[in-house]
Design goal:
The chain has 974 residues and is α/β, with parallel strands linked by helices. 43% of the residues lie in helices and 12% in strands.
Length: 974
């Protein structure tokens, strides 16, 4: 590896530490190959250098971005080239009719950019949250709606590629062919010869036409030899679906398709598979966007889904099957007309149950949740230690019934009782999923081999293709020759030789002489902690993880736990110890534990729960004791933190930094926070305005102020802080609040949960829940808190508390203001432009719409960065490891600072600190913006909210003192 490091220094980051290599040995497929190194090139020129260095070192190269491929095409024992960190440019062209994209941008990111133009990409894979455009093009991925008319091959306009020789070809330039001929004369001539060879044979042309009349990602896209004339165009379309074996795509220009915002959806249930497939011709004639097939086993699995309606739940499934049908259009009137025409056809079908096409967004979402959740539910239920295998095949639609029937018979013959069939019926494209134990005493590799051989026979006998949209990969490479025949296979081999004569790019993928390649390097899944054991390693979590470009992602944290367990099982304690040592920083210390991974995980894993368990396991007795003591004396702890910040703000910066460095060196970076000059002075404990004595009035809500307001003061001298802003807004809207008893001693518990301090958390829960129970009049009043992470923390505390506390209703102040206060307020001084940062906890709780509602009410323009993500501050995590926040916010901070904004807002104090650090702009709570924007016109002698006469009053310890600071004896609030 030393040669590689030296050759690429300054152009490419190369990682060859074992932890990094093992973290990248896994993707969404059932293959596991440990790379010799992981490289992250900076640009196309660096890729050229990488090609040369790899060739000199005799190493193979495999490109990976999202790692969502399912057939083994994104793994290697050579150098794995990670393109996700760079190559993420998105340039909208011609008002959205075209888009130029780098291979590292996800489909979701591109579609978000195109949404404002009413356009989207043609390919619509289910993995759009994580799969990247580079992978979609390289695999010619499609999806539920695009078919063959709008896939990458059909919508490609041009691409810029780097060939293994280092030549860079832009196929979109007028002189592309001239350039190709000059730089790569043998390739240019060879493509012309192959074109003429194929076109000169009616048999070869007919075979290609038949095989590519349906979805087909088996082998190379040799239909390019028929469809295009010039070598540059042929090359570009051969690269589509080539799975990184011919060239590296540095950018691609794709034609877009209209985004159809209006839809009508129905789940049509039939007595059997024959009736369902028999209905396809009439349904296809009614011009649906999608028709999804679910077999009887899929329906049984779907019945367990929380989104299943009464009709499905009550169905006694025997041989039933269902078709999920959707119609889409650009206007409501158009989709209604489509649905009305389709309804007459549906009425004639032998449907069991409802025939309705729903316009209700919630109903439609539930139906799609069942369909999209099949993979997750089957994978989640698999026995620990087994691997989920998802395959896809395609046959002509008239042969779909026979294929499904015979496939089901194969499941029975080979003992796969849990297998399911579902897929894109309109295209004759079905997926099937089964689970298998691929290693250990009870491994069934022989069964898997026999099943695969029988499945290949079945699909080819039906005139189908062994891969429709998931790519050939390693899984089907041994069968390419059989599907196409010797002559067309020879054409494919020649294409590979012409483009990659030294076989540097992804050897063993697409083209392979090994008849058992699909049985080698198979992934095994040792049993690990229950929080993560059901992970299927799909990678959907990775784009939302704040540490993805610093250390590890949720998927990598989980696969490294499996690698550590594998080492233990192998008796290699030295390796296990080495991996554990590196895991501490890479996976435990730099995890924000924000739970964003759970929002996109198909099996709802929150990797933060795993990390919290590991932190708890690693916590020493002294730390546990200290945090338990802190829970007992939280008021003192928060005021001490406040005092420390106030003193630091008053001292010279160099002096504070010097002392802080010594403290972190002695106490450790995981214990002593890093102070930085942008941090505010300390805050103060929150009470209610003392001059408003409402003891005689009944309360409308209980206010649980966040202790972050005690520790951290407002962003600027003129800012009131979230708690003061909220109480002022309630006063303005005529809402009466009360505080829980001893409010200064209470906390939502998040600091203890995030650190895995179970004893301290239990101590705090034992204090908080009875206090809220009393203050809320046994759950009669809502409990409102002014930081989104505190809202989530309190809700979790209530959920895990005794059953009698479950009726406590915890509401975030943003939601309370949007629903209860905003209608009573008048915006008198809106801001022109507001940069808004939704927090991860607000996102997890579904609060972004109400957050946006308040922002829209107070600002003419609201901007949430397209590159938005968790800031990584995560309570004190950004203070302990500032590199986490710096990495997590780098892209969105640049986007925010590209244009000036009048105001900057979020809904959680520590996230505001993180974004202030990242951007250099003063982020405040959105309620502070709302409070300023709704202030009534005041007379010159009237105090402002920041005036000391209107300040939030500190609470006496233990809730004593002023009557307005706690409930009265009669239970009425202040």
């Amino acid at each position: 590896m030393q040669h590689l490091h030296e050759a690429l220094r300054g152009h490419c980051i190369v990682h060859d530490r074992l932890s990094d290599r093992l973290a990248h040995a896994h993707d969404a497929s059932h293959f596991r190959l440990v790379p010799a190194a992981v490289a992250r090139p900076h640009d196309a020129q660096a890729v050229g250098r990488l090609f040369a260095a790899a060739k000199t070192a005799g190493l193979a190269l495999t490109f990976r971005s999202g790692g969502t491929s399912l057939s083994g095409q994104a793994g290697t024992a050579g150098v794995l080239v990670d393109t996700r960190a760079r190559f993420r440019t998105i340039e909208v062209l011609d008002g959205g009719l075209r888009v130029r994209v780098g291979p590292g941008a996800t489909v979701r990111q591109v579609n978000a950019r195109l949404a404002g133009f009413g356009r989207k990409l043609g390919p619509d894979p289910a993995s759009e949250v994580a799969c990247t455009v580079g992978g979609v093009v390289a695999n010619n991925s499609s999806g539920m709606a695009c078919g063959t008319a709008a896939n990458s091959y059909a919508t490609l306009e041009s691409m810029v590629i780097v060939l293994p020789s280092g030549s860079v070809i832009d196929t979109g330039t007028p002189d592309a062919d001239t350039t190709l001929r000059a730089l790569e004369p043998e390739l240019y001539a060879g493509l012309g010869r192959l074109r003429d060879r194929v076109r000169g044979s009616r048999e070869l042309r007919n075979s290609i036409t038949r095989q590519f009349s349906m979805k087909n990602t088996m082998g190379y896209g040799i239909n390019a030899l028929v469809d295009f004339a010039t070598p540059a165009d042929i090359l570009a379309h051969l690269v589509v679906g080539s799975e990184g074996t011919l060239a590296f795509i540095t950018s691609v220009v794709l034609r877009t398709v209209p985004a159809l915002p209006y839809a009508r959806t129905g789940l049509l249930i039939f007595e059997n598979l024959s009736a369902a497939t028999g209905a396809l011709p009439d349904l296809v004639d009614s011009a649906p966007t999608s028709i999804e097939l679910l077999d009887a086993t899929s329906l049984r699995v779907g019945q367990r889904d929380s989104a299943a309606g009464e009709v499905l739940r009550s169905l006694a499934v025997k041989d039933h099957a269902a078709l999920l049908v959707e119609y889409q259009a650009t206007t409501c009137q158009e989709v209604d007309e489509l649905a009305a025409a389709a309804q007459s056809a549906i009425e004639k079908l032998p449907v069991t149950g409802p025939r309705d096409l729903s316009a209700d967004a919630a109903d439609r979402a539930d139906m799609w949740h069942i369909r999209k959740g099949l993979y997750a539910m089957v994978a989640e239920a698999r026995p620990s230690g087994t691997t989920a295998l998802l395959e896809d095949v395609v046959v002509p639609v008239p042969r779909l019934l026979a294929t499904c029937q015979r496939l089901t018979a194969l499941f029975d013959r080979h003992g796969y009782s849990d297998a399911v069939i579902f897929g894109h019926a309109k295209d004759g494209n079905i997926h099937f999923m089964l689970t298998e134990r691929l290693a250990g005493d009870n491994a069934s590799l022989g069964r898997f081999q026999r099943f695969t051989d029988d499945m290949v026979d079945l699909v080819l006998d039906q005139g189908g293709s062994l891969k429709a949209e998931h790519g050939t990969g390693r899984m089907m490479a041994p069968f390419v020759r059989r599907q196409y025949g010797d002559e067309l296979y020879a054409v494919m081999c020649e294409i590979k030789r012409l483009c990659d004569p030294d076989n540097v790019l992804n050897p063993g993928v697409v083209i392979s002489d090994d008849p058992e390649a699909h049985l080698r390097d198979l992934k095994t899944t040792p049993t690990i902690e229950p929080e993560a054991d059901r992970c299927v390693e799909c990678g959907f979590c990775e784009p939302v993880c704040p540490s993805r470009e610093l250390t590890t992602t949720p998927r990598q944290r989980i696969v490294l736990r499996r690698e550590i367990e594998r080492a233990h099982l192998d008796g290699d304690s030295e390796l296990a110890g080495r991996l554990e040592a590196e895991y501490t920083y890479d996976a435990v210390e730099t995890c924000a534990a924000d739970g964003m991974c759970q929002t996109v995980c198909p099996v709802t894993i929150n990797t933060g729960d795993l990390v919290k368990r590991l932190r708890s396991d690693r916590a020493g007795h002294a730390s546990e004791t200290a945090w338990k003591v802190a829970a007992r004396h939280w008021d003192i702890a928060t005021r001490a933190a406040s005092t420390a910040l106030t003193v630091a703000a008053a001292l010279p910066t160099p002096a504070v930094e010097a002392v802080n460095r010594v403290g972190r060196a002695l106490g450790g970076h995981e214990t002593v926070p890093l102070w930085s000059p942008e941090l505010p002075a300390g805050g103060c404990r929150t009470g209610l305005p003392a001059e408003h004595d409402r003891a005689a009035q009944p309360a409308d809500a209980v206010f649980f102020p966040s202790c972050t307001g005690t520790m951290f003061g407002p962003a600027t001298a003129g800012s009131p802080g979230a708690s003061a802003a909220f109480t002022a807004l309630c006063d303005r809207a005529g809402i009466t609040l009360r505080l829980p008893p001893a409010a200064g001693e209470l906390c939502c518990g998040t600091p203890w949960r995030s650190k895995g301090m179970a004893r301290g958390y239990a101590e705090m829960s034992a204090r908080v829940l009875p206090a809220l129970w009393e203050a809320s009049s046994h759950g009669a009043l809502p409990v409102v808190t002014d930081a989104s992470s505190c809202t989530e923390g309190l809700r979790q505390m209530v959920d895990h508390g005794a059953e009698r506390f479950h009726s406590i209703d915890v509401i975030d102040a943003v939601e309370f203001c949007a629903t209860r206060l905003l209608p009573r307020l008048t915006v008198t001084a809106p801001v022109a432009d507001l940069a808004l940062h939704p927090t991860c906890s607000a996102t997890r709780m579904g609060l972004v719409p109400v957050l946006r509602a308040i922002a829209d009410a107070v600002a003419t323009t609201v901007r949430v960065p397209e590159s938005w993500g968790c800031c990584g501050f995560a309570g004190d995590r950004g203070l302990l490891h500032p590199e986490l926040t710096a990495s997590a916010t780098r892209e969105q901070a640049a986007e925010i600072n590209a244009d000036p904004h009048e105001a900057y807002a979020s809904c959680n104090r520590t996230c505001e600190l993180g974004m202030t650090r990242a951007t250099g702009q003063p982020y405040v709570h959105v309620l502070e913006v709302l409070e300023r924007a709704t202030r009534p016109e005041r007379r010159s002698n009237e105090p402002s909210l920041s005036d000391p006469r209107h300040a939030v009053q500190p609470l006496p310890a233990h809730g004593g003192g002023a009557r307005s600071s706690r409930p009265g004896a009669d239970g009425r609030g202040v």
